[in-house]
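Morning. Coffee machine broken again, so started the prediction first thing and wrote up yesterday's gels while waiting. Chain of 202 residues, entered below exactly as on the submission form.
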Amino acid sequence: MSRFSQAISEGDGISIVPLLDGDVGELAALAERSGAEAVAVSRDADVAAVRARTSLAVLVTRPELDAERFAPPEADACVLVFEHWAGYEELESLYGLILESGVACVVDVRDDEELEQALELLDPEIFLLSERDRDRDEDDLERTLDLLPDVPAGKLVISEAPVVAREQAVALERAGVDAILVRAGESGDAFAGAVRAIAGEG
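Came back before lunch.
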């Protein structure tokens, strides 16, 4: 099991994975003190700065369509957006190369068709249930709760649902979600407060 998989599957309750935006080094340290089990950064962030400030597992989201730069060496996991690669013959090869490098690969899907295809082609260990192209009339947790029953038992599931309250996190935990990707803002106090509130740490 990868370091990232362990981070979101072990421990009590649902895991909180804040997406860092701004001073990622400082926010990474705050995230660890506030009860997060891992942190996420975009592909443009300074992953080395994050690694220097926290012992938490690091997930790189939305990586560019460049196989050679897909997984920074400081990352523990990266996101493969199934939509971006579904038409490429090298999808299975890329997925295998990422795993061989020792980096966990989280497969991002946004509907039941992508989920079915990803299972058939890759059978990944970890899914990110994406909120891309979300309908305005969709409830905050609706997409995750709709897709979750189709995820086979034994897989790890990260929800990108816009969770802002502990009650929402508890609802996802009860449904079987392992982790939540949280957008907690850029200011230190607000960021720490949001992470603590969702994690139930205060």
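Residues 188-199 form the longest helix (12 residues). Going to sketch it on the whiteboard this afternoon.
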